[in-house]
Design a protein that fits this description.
Number of strands: 17
Oligomer: single chain
Distance between the termini: 72 Å
Mean pLDDT: 96
Radius of gyration: 22 Å
Length: about 475
């Protein structure tokens, strides 16, 4: 007769306000959360049930708000070492100014930049990160492996959107000729990355998406074949779309149609696809996204930094389009923090047509949690606090100077100053304590990033 299996180790968190972000937006003014192994076992109002076996830790979370961990849906980690450049440019001019520098990155630079990007997000409540990496200069080393390794070491859940570019300056694109891949080479390298690193399981820590860069840096063949590859491999697809008026003009001139129609003509719309930005969307575009289930990564700070415009997020949500939040690359959002995007999403959208009715604080929190999980195709396992889901959650301190006089803890989190993270858990494992990373040396990362940024600047200056 088989011996009974031992009870999993349990973590009990009590006396906290809880915003579950479930389908009913259930909240508890003072409640408990029980974690068994890497799963949420139970949660509810008041104290945890008595008599729980194998409780290895109890946390008194008085003065805190518990939310699902934040989910980042769009980023470019390598840009951590090119922050603060071309600060007064629009997107096209910014790309032209920075591509000659980006085209000289190597494995050491990318690893260090990934560490910096991940550290900044993780200590600010991100539990699931994403990187759209599309610059693979010849002879630059194993860039995908370096990024994935950095995420693994940091302890965050991670999606690598393996990007690609095959339209360089000589073909009418923006990247330098030596910074792009061949169409066949990009597709082959993407497939190998998926086969080597993608984990399709419920509690996967690493997943891979197929992610050609953007209409002005890829061929139609790469976009069409990328969509076919993603569906053959059963993974998600990602790209940039409808970011600026210049992109709209580019697509009409080159393809005879706007970005959304172009993407649909190549098979790059669907419930397995999400787009970054989507600022310049008309009613027909939004309807196409809703009809196909295509998701959106909303990047309010980057859209403002590059003067791209205000995305129609309220209209997308009303139409049923899945929308999450993205930091975007830190060369266009130098703070690199996702929790500030909760506030910026709400404030910037209230400057649009819907004004004060654009977004609520709870809608902003949903964008940064469950909405992000939807966009990454992981809403069954993360993004809300519910029994059976993975134990990815954050304890935000809301009883200190910046928040104690705001009675509603969700409003305190979204509208107040950036709330301190007392603890952050991924897969039931704590990765942040009192705002400090438990598995990385922040000071060393800062020193390494400064050194790599200077090395990249020297290489670029030498031509």
């Amino acid at each position: 007769m088989a011996a009974p299996s031992a009870a999993p180790p349990r973590l009990v968190v009590e006396n906290a306000a809880i915003a579950t972000v479930d389908a009913h937006d259930t909240e508890y003014a003072s409640g408990h959360l029980v974690v068994a192994g890497n799963r949420i076992e139970s949660l509810g109002p008041g104290r945890a049930p008595q008599g729980l076996e194998n409780v290895v830790r109890r946390i008194d979370a008085t003065g805190h708000l518990i939310t699902p961990g934040l989910v980042n849906t769009h980023h470019h980690f390598y840009q951590w070492i090119t922050r603060g450049l071309a600060t007064d440019h629009n997107l096209f001019d910014w790309l032209v100014a920075l591509y000659p520098t980006w085209a000289r990155i190597d494995e050491s630079m990318v690893r260090t930049a990934a560490q910096g990007s991940l550290a900044m997000m993780a200590r600010g409540g991100v539990t699931t990160a994403m990187d759209h990496h599309y610059v693979y200069p010849r002879g630059s080393g194993d860039l995908s492996g370096a990024i994935i390794g950095a995420a693994r070491d940091m302890g965050v859940r991670f999606t690598l959107a393996r990007g690609s570019m095959d339209r360089s300056v000589k073909d009418g694109g923006l990247p330098p000729d030596f910074a792009v891949e061949t169409t066949e080479g990009a597709l082959a390298a993407t497939e190998e990355t998926v086969r080597q690193h993608h984990d399709p399981s419920f509690d996967a820590m690493t997943q891979v998406a197929v992610a050609p860069c953007s209409p002005f840096s890829i061929s139609t063949e790469l976009l069409r074949e990328g969509a076919a590859l993603g569906r053959r491999l059963g993974v998600r697809m990602h790209t940039h779309g409808s970011e600026t008026v210049e992109e709209e003009k580019f697509c009409h001139e080159l393809f005879g149609m706007g970005p959304t129609d172009y993407f649909e003509s190549t098979g790059f719309l669907g419930e397995d696809v999400w787009m970054a930005h989507c600022v310049h969307m008309n009613d027909s575009d939004i309807a196409a996204f809703a009809r196909t289930g295509t998701g959106v990564a909303h990047c309010p700070s980057s859209n403002a930094r590059l003067a791209a415009g205000i995305a129609r997020v309220p209209d997308m949500l009303r139409a049923g389009v899945p929308v999450g939040l993205g930091v975007d690359g830190t060369a266009s959002n130098e703070s690199g923090e996702l929790h500030t995007e909760l506030r910026n999403a709400l404030l910037i959208n209230r400057l649009g047509a819907h004004r004060e009715a654009a977004l609520t604080a709870r809608q902003a929190l949903r964008l940064g949690t469950y909405g992000g999980a939807q966009v990454l195709g992981r809403a069954d396992s993360i993004g809300s606090l519910e029994p059976g889901k993975l134990a990815d959650f954050v304890l935000w301190k809301v009883d200190g100077l910046g928040h104690s006089s705001i009675a509603d803890p969700v409003s305190a989190l979204v509208l107040g100053a950036a709330a301190p993270v007392t603890a952050s858990f991924v897969d039931g494992r704590q990765i942040v304590e009192l705002g400090r990373l438990l598995f990385a040396d922040e000071e060393q990362i800062a020193r390494d990033a400064r050194a790599e940024a200077r090395r990249l600047a020297r290489i670029t200056a030498q031509g």
